[in-house]
Specification:
The complex is a heterodimer of chains A (about 450) and B (about 425). Chain A has about 450 residues and is an alpha+beta fold. In chain A, about 45% of the residues lie in helices and about 20% in strands. Chain A has 16 helices and 12 strands. In chain A, helix 9 crosses helix 12 and helix 11 packs across helix 15. By secondary structure, chain B is an alpha+beta fold. Chain B folds into 2 domains: about 200 residues, Metalloenzyme, LuxS/M16 peptidase-like (Cytochrome Bc1 Complex, Chain A, domain 1), CATH 3.30.830.10; about 190 residues, Cytochrome Bc1 Complex, Chain A, domain 1, CATH 3.30.830.10. Chain B is about 45% helix and about 15% strand. Chain B contains 16 helices and 11 strands. Chain B has a 6-stranded mixed sheet with strand order 1-2-6-3-5-4, with helices on both faces. In chain B, strands 7-11-8-10-9 form a 5-stranded mixed sheet. The chains are: A alpha+beta (about 450), B alpha+beta (about 425). At the A-B interface, helix 2, strand 5, helix 4, helix 10 and strand 10 of A face helix 2, strand 5, helix 3, helix 4 and helix 9 of B.
């Protein structure tokens, strides 16, 4: 035991900050299987579990088929586990659960993603079941029809959520005719789908070329590569283009107001073009985003929440999608302060673009970025999701190490340069969902208010 | 064939109690260079006095508003500026505060937590500011969204009788708006004594060094008397209860059913079969209710069955409940859903579980517990909650083995007891989208 403690105010000085050790990049084994599937395996035996991610590109081919593509991808992903040539839905579900797995399948505008954790002892079973689904998912007609109705109801429910309405309105404003404007399947298009269409979509789109398998956990990588090679041997199909359409230009002028009569809060959503992980501006943009609104110790949180009490959880971030990256600002504020909250948000954006941040602000954001990067890859699940997301954009795990170095080198001048480029109010679109009768008048004192597209 | 279930890696626990009564649990583990600090205070929504609904949660916010040596916003800056993350949350029976940071920042995190345990800044200005913030939190999570906080905010009124169990834990705006600095000082004085708290530290550190820091920073917090904790248990329901709520923003109906279950602390052995039963009924695509309500009978859009209002079976004391929740189409009524759930209970009660069914549920339970244990925060929180609620820091570590030993016959008995008892039913009627 230690010395007896005396109440002495000297001990209550803040302990010095000892720099954290940089995170070691994970040692990943990569292999391209004979069918073209890229596989990445990391041994991380913290618990006797394994995390599995399979990312399959699924972009819409063009604007014309965007709505259909989104609807088909959505119904396909939610019907995919309804059985295979050799297993009923119940058998498949049971076989997965017997090894502790709960396989999820989700689709967005870029990809189809399979994700599960599984007991160490059940990995080969999960890989076999996954392969069974990929090669022979059966999409039985009555079950697909029932799921189509449920999906329609889930979409209808989602459309009553103000946060979802706001996200859709911003996506329409930013992306116009681009498939990214389809953040939610159109219920009318979903209603017209049938099992035959879903089966055809699977045949045409669910292929190994361009797909990325990530396995992290209590495994021997060489064994996993062998197991995956055997499991996925029958999953074939010629390569197909998976290039995402270029993002369109948008008109940043004016505030789009979506009326939600009776709303007791307004959802402010701002967005504009940004750059992705390969761009030399990215490390500085990532830190500029943190300083502006990307974490609790940001200017936006200090202003909107801690000084003014306008909102609970204001936030900004960078969305990295296949077709391009987007800078996003979200704040849900009391109706009666909506225009003031937009004004304060614009003020903070302007301050980023026009004046240098302090060295202290930069250092704080930098340590946070490096620390949370290390933490997010400290668990099996976190590492698997990070590597899967990087792999989906064609980036190897070494990107993590390079990115850490680049973040360490960012200067105050760099922050100002990227803030001027990507955080200028004049290049961002602003959308508000709220009770127009309450908020329109005051918003008009800030900018022209326009109706949603 | 059942899969072999691997066991949790063993991590040693070191317990000590400081002179001021603070219970401390150290859980060293050097698998990654990260540490977690969790402070759990034995006060939650159920301890709020009449006229002060939502105060436990409001006070949680105020605890981030500065302390003797850290001005407002500094707590966040110290933690995040060290490369870490933080949060706090308010539960029925406790309020917790936690940080995860690079291992090199442990001393700093302990300093920050100790400083606000000793002397948080409780000014009317910061309280007024956080009342506004909490009102926006309630608007975003409850008032401005369909199904907001359904059913955790509405079902207790049907399921229980006492103010402690039925009141709105987020808080009525009238109560929140009248909160004063004096109320906060009283609340702090009553409930935030070191003897009413548990500190857990997990991750990559030396036990001797961490002990010294804990003594240095927390040891100086003066001892205060700890409050008596009234029992919050209630007698079983004497008849079936039913209520309806209108949700003006919802587009489709929803249903919640609550059953009282045994005391999870004093009668753990009787409680554990209900944990297995809820997994059997509702976890994963293979579960009884997913098969029955979604895939076979097409009665629900979504179903879930879980223990505890917030879905964690082990984070509340008595009284607690098993809850079933479903969203369903307008063409289905609550009685049909209720009948289907009862039939599944009946089938478990009369026919028991198939051998592979029990193996399946055990594999899922093990996988979920193992996954939760991967990550220093999950482990530190498990240790702290185990010590606070169950009086045993190693509660979470024992859980996989205990759940694996629950016999199928006990699960069947539990299902039979649920069928025999009175229930609380809450129907949500949609007011929008029609």
């Amino acid at each position: 035991m230690t010395d007896p403690v005396t109440p002495d105010d000297d001990v209550m000085t803040l302990p010095p900050l000892i720099p954290a050790r940089p995170a070691r990049p994970p040692r990943a084994v990569s292999a391209t299987l004979p069918n073209g599937l890229d596989t990445l395996v990391v041994r991380r035996p913290t618990v006797p579990m394994v995390e599995v991610r399979l990312h399959i590109p699924l972009p819409a081919a063009n604007s014309r088929n965007a709505a259909a593509s989104t609807a088909r991808g959505s119904l396909m992903s939610s019907s995919m586990l309804f059985g295979t040539a050799g297993r009923s839905q119940e058998q498949l579900a049971n076989d997965l659960a017997m090894v502790g797995a709960d396989l999820s399948v989700s689709a967005d505008s870029d990809r189809l993603l399979f994700a599960t954790a599984v007991l160490r002892t059940g990995l080969s079973t999960v890989l076999d079941l996954l392969a069974d689904v990929l090669t022979s998912a059966s999409y039985p007609s009555p079950e697909v029809a029932a799921e189509r109705d449920r999906l329609g109801q889930r979409i209808t429910m989602a459309l009553t959520q103000p946060g979802i309405v706001a996200r859709m309105a911003r996506a329409r404003r930013l992306f116009g005719e681009h498939p990214y404007a389809q953040t939610m399947p159109d219920p009318a298009v979903v209603a017209g789908l049938d099992a035959a269409t879903v089966r055809r979509t699977h045949r045409e789109r669910v292929r190994p070329y361009g797909a990325k398998l990530v396995v992290v956990g209590d495994v021997q990588p060489a064994t996993v590569v062998k197991q995956a090679t055997a499991a996925f041997a029958e999953w074939m199909g010629p390569p197909r283009s998976s290039r995402a359409m270029k993002l369109p230009d948008f008109e940043p002028v004016g505030i789009t107001l979506v009326d939600r009569p009776g709303a007791v809060q307004s959802n402010i959503r701002i967005g504009g073009s940004a750059v992705g992980r390969r761009d030399p501006d990215y490390p500085a943009l990532k830190l500029a985003n943190l300083i502006f609104g990307g974490y609790f110790s940001s200017r936006l949180t200090e202003n909107l929440r801690e000084r003014n009490g306008f909102t609970y959880s204001p936030h900004s971030g960078i969305d990295n999608s296949a077709a391009g990256s987007t800078f996003l600002v979200d704040a849900d504020v009391a109706s009666d302060v909506t225009a003031r909250a937009v004004h304060e948000t614009w003020y903070e954006l302007g301050r980023m673009a026009l004046s240098p941040v302090t060295q202290d602000e930069l250092d704080l954001a930098r340590r946070y970025a490096l620390g949370t990067l290390a933490m997010s890859t400290a668990t099996q699940a976190g590492l698997a999701s990070t590597l899967s997301s990087l792999a989906g954009q064609g980036l190897a795990p070494v990107w993590l190490a390079e990115h850490q170095k680049a973040v360490a080198a960012v200067t105050v001048d760099d922050i100002q340069t990227v803030s001027h480029r990507y955080l200028s109010v004049s290049s961002l679109a602003t959308v508000v969902v709220g009770d127009a009768a309450v908020v329109r008048n005051s918003l008009e004192s800030l900018a022209a208010v326009r109706a949603p597209e | 064939m059942p899969v072999r279930i691997p066991s949790l890696p063993a991590h040693p626990l070191h317990r000590l109690t400081l002179d001021n009564g603070l219970r401390v649990v150290l859980a060293p583990d050097s698998t990654s260079p990260v540490v977690a600090v969790a402070v759990y205070y034995d006060v939650g929504m159920r301890s709020e006095p009449l006229g002060r609904t939502g105060f436990a949660h409001l006070f949680e916010h105020v605890m981030f508003q500065g302390s003797a040596h850290l001005p407002k916003l500094e707590h966040a800056r110290q933690v995040q500026g060290s490369g870490g993350v933080f949060n706090g949350s308010t539960h029925l029976d406790y309020t917790n505060y936690f940080e995860v940071l690079p291992a090199s920042a442990l001393e700093r995190a302990l300093f920050c937590e100790a400083d606000r345990m000793a002397a948080p800044l409780l000014t009317q200005e910061t309280i007024d500011n956080q009342i506004d913030v909490v009102k926006e939190e309630i608007r975003v999570n409850v008032l401005n969204r369909p199904y907001g906080a359904f059913p955790w905010l509405q079902l207790p009124e049907v399921l229980y009788d006492t103010f402690a169990n039925t009141h709105n834990g987020y808080g009525d705006f009238v109560d929140l708006e009248s909160a004063t600095a004096q109320d906060a000082e009283q609340f702090f004085d009553s409930y935030y004594a070191p003897g009413n708290a548990v500190l857990a530290v997990g991750g990559d550190f030396e036990v001797d060094q961490a002990t010294e820091w804990v003594q240095r920073y927390f040891g100086r917090v003066a001892a205060r008397s700890t409050p008596a904790r009234p029992p919050f248990g209630e007698p079983p329901l004497a008849q079936d209860r039913h209520a309806e709520v209108l949700d003006p923003l919802a587009s489709t109906p929803a249903l919640a059913i609550g059953w009282r279950v045994p005391d999870p602390v004093d009668d753990l052995e009787a409680f554990l079969p209900y944990v297995v039963l809820s997994e059997l009924m509702s976890d994963s695509d293979a579960s009884r209710l997913e098969q029955r309500l979604i895939h076979r009978d097409h009665l629900a859009i979504h179903q879930s069955m879980y223990l505890g209002l917030f879905g964690d079976p082990f984070d509340a004391r008595d009284a607690t409940a098993l809850i079933f929740q479903a969203h369903h189409g307008p063409n289905v009524n609550a009685d049909q859903l209720r009948a289907a759930v009862d039939e599944e209970f009946q089938s478990v009660a009369s026919d028991g579980l198939g051998e592979s069914e029990l193996a399946r549920v055990q594999a899922r339970i093990a996988a979920q517990l193992l996954r939760q244990a991967d990550g220093v925060l999950g482990r530190a929180q498990g240790v702290a909650a185990g010590e606070l609620i169950h009086g045993r820091a190693d509660f979470a570590a024992d859980l996989p083995a205990r759940l694996a030993e629950v016999p199928a016959a006990s699960v069947a008995t539990a299902a039979g007891r649920l069928l025999a008892q009175h229930t609380a039913v809450l129907e949500l009627r949609p007011g929008a989208g029609r």
